[in-house]
């Protein structure tokens, strides 16, 4: 998905992706990354973001029409914890409350 910390992908056994269709993708990426940077290791630059939780990682990529998420963990339980965390913060930061993240399992 991006060039930030690609070595994390190799340890992941569970992965889900989601897309938020929004013209506000860059602002949301910045807000999420800035928020989480006070709690966990975060890197972001331009249209790419990387959040490293203790239980796994989440990659973010913004473009003009959408914000893409790819969350990875060593097991399903950890993955669900990451997704719940991303979901709750995304809902809080999104101005359009009708935007919902639909998560899809990846092989």
**Strand order across the biggest sheet?**
2-3-4-5-1-6
Counted beta strands: 6
Query: On the 0-100 scale, what is the average pLDDT?
Result: 89
| CATH level-4 homologous superfamily | Alpha-D-phosphohexomutase, C-terminal domain
List its salient traits.
alpha+beta, globular, TATA-Binding Protein, 107 residues, 6 strands, six-stranded antiparallel beta sheet
SSE inventory with pairings:
Layout: E1 14-21, H1 25-36, E2 41-45, E3 48-53, E4 56-62, E5 66-73, H2 76-93, E6 104-105
Antiparallel strand pairs: 1-5, 1-6, 2-3, 3-4, 4-5
Briefly characterize the structure.
The protein has 107 residues and is α+β, with helices and mostly antiparallel strands. The protein contains 2 helices and 6 strands, in the order E-H-E-E-E-E-H-E.
What would you say this structure looks like, in words?
By secondary structure, this protein is an alpha+beta fold. It has one domain (6-105): TATA-Binding Protein (2-Layer Sandwich). It has 2 helices and 6 strands, in the order E-H-E-E-E-E-H-E. The chain has helices at 25-36, 76-93; strands at residues 14-21, 41-45, 48-53, 56-62, 66-73, 104-105. Strands 2-3-4-5-1-6 form a 6-stranded antiparallel beta sheet, covered by helices on one side. The longest helix is centred in the C-terminal third of the chain and has 18 residues, at 76-93. The chain is globular and about 30 Å long. The two termini are 15 Å apart.
